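cache lookup: miss for this entity combination. No prior model stored, computing from scratch. Input as submitted by user K.M.:
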Amino acid sequence: MSSKISKPAQYPFSDSFPILNEKVSGKSLVYLDNAATSQKPQCVIDALTEYYEHINANVHRGIHELSRKSTIAYEEARARLARFIGAAEAEELIWTRGTTEAINLVAGSWGLDSLKEGDEILISTMEHHSNIVPWQLVAQRTGAILRYIEIDDQGRLVLEDFPDLLNARTRIVSVSHISNSLGTVNPIRQIAEQTKSAGALLFVDGAQAVPHRRVDVQELGCDFYAFSGHKMCGPTGIGGLWARRELLESMPPYHGGGEMIRTVGRDESTWADIPHKFEAGTPNIAGAIGVAAAADFLEDLTFEAIAEHERSVISYAIERLSSIKDVQIFGPKDLVERSGVVSFVMGDAHPHDIATILDGEGVAIRAGHHCAQLVMHHFGVSATARASFYLYNSKEDVDRLAESLGLVQAIFSTS
Amino acid sequence: MTEPSLTSLYQQLILEHYRNPRNQSEIEGYTAEAHVSNPVCGDEICIQIRLAEDVIKEIRFVGKGCSISQASVSMMTSVVKGKSCDQAIQLAGRFADMMKGNQEVAADISMGDLRALRGVSKFPVRIKCALLGFDALRKALQKDQDVDRNVYSKREMIQ
Ligand SMILES: Cc1ncc(COP(=O)(O)O)c(C=O)c1O
């Protein structure tokens, strides 16, 4: 298999992922549900084990040796991830449970505090539900108005309309860096410039971007950036929110509790400095350490090698799937504008049926609305089948997918 | 252990009902109606029933979704038509038993075309699809206490 790939020394990446040796339905697993969550390399699993076997203690609380060690490891992990996404300093990275919590944090803290009746929040119909619902909630509570950038027939943002949608009432724009349902890569730098000149803030949902490409939050020019550890080879339950120091310092706390205070009085308390102001309660210490190991893993492989590999697998996947009768692929036609997600429908075989038949062949894909019902409405479907690729997928995986789709065809063409 | 076979799941009769659903449309003068959906996959079913003296005189549905959910509701409407409400609820219970692997029900000719769905019991994640139409039936007959409120939103039909 490595013969088809240009950097044989580093391939196959899949050797590092123990779960890929699992059998499903008696067949070797082909895991193509990476947009939902990625698998974990041995080094991440080891980092978690190491933490629980040798370091485990609560952070920022104990005087004892383990607490000191655990605090150091936790804060080093923060610094590691801050560097990973190009933040100017570690304190600008808030640990969250993932992208969803990061969006809720900003909507609940900045949003409830700053939005007034008639203010506008601008998102897009491409968004994951987690980048829609928190804004709906805050709009309902503040009287702010939620507006949408539409998508075109290739699932790209209609950015010609963007300057008209932006106006003096626009307070925040929130869009995904890469769409989870279509794979569309959005031109964040351009969006950032236009948002900035309109005097609004830009929130970028980076859940699908951080796993696949080098992200530099400062270079992107956004104000908030969110990501999830579990989609980038890290554990579940950990992710991050980045924003510049001044912005974070200007925001009120989101959750109250231990860890986030400086002093507590009977009626009032004072807050800890950032980032701890936003991290009430015992955090996911092991998760932070695990995601730092994932960042090391990805950077050791290099994003250049990952991108090159993924590009060859995805272009092969699109080529193979396009040649199957009745398969209709959604999303941008130009590969430069798309990431590792291939969303499709196939004749009258419902995506749910496709997924069951593929599962019987050991091929794991997702079927449904992918938490993007507005995208489904746009294309007039209630669900799609979605194969999403990551660094450990190979062209052989694509072949298995295509062969299994042949079986779907055989079953559904019999009556 | 042998793997559950796909050919046992995708019986001809299932695909036939999926493509040519029976009793599909709305009825005038219906006396009971229910809408159910499975937010996990987006499948939706709306059924309408005309009852007279506790007998299902007419039952029709509109829906969208996978072959299993749509074939199941199509088969169900054919089987319950002309039955009393109690008989229909009883049938729903027997069908649920078949989904748990009950072989006796799977061999019962009074289940009609529904027997073709017996293979679904081997695919746990798809059982919910097969039960969706029956949930609509129970709900329409006001005997919906068993329907899991958390799974089925009360949202109106999207399209
Ligand atoms: C684009 C996008 N945004 C947000 C999320 C939510 O991420 P999480 O569930 O990790 O909070 C996801 C993943 O499900 C996603 O793909």
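stored under new cache key. Residues 14-37+302-414 of chain A form a domain with the Aspartate Aminotransferase, domain 1 fold (CATH 3.90.1150.10).
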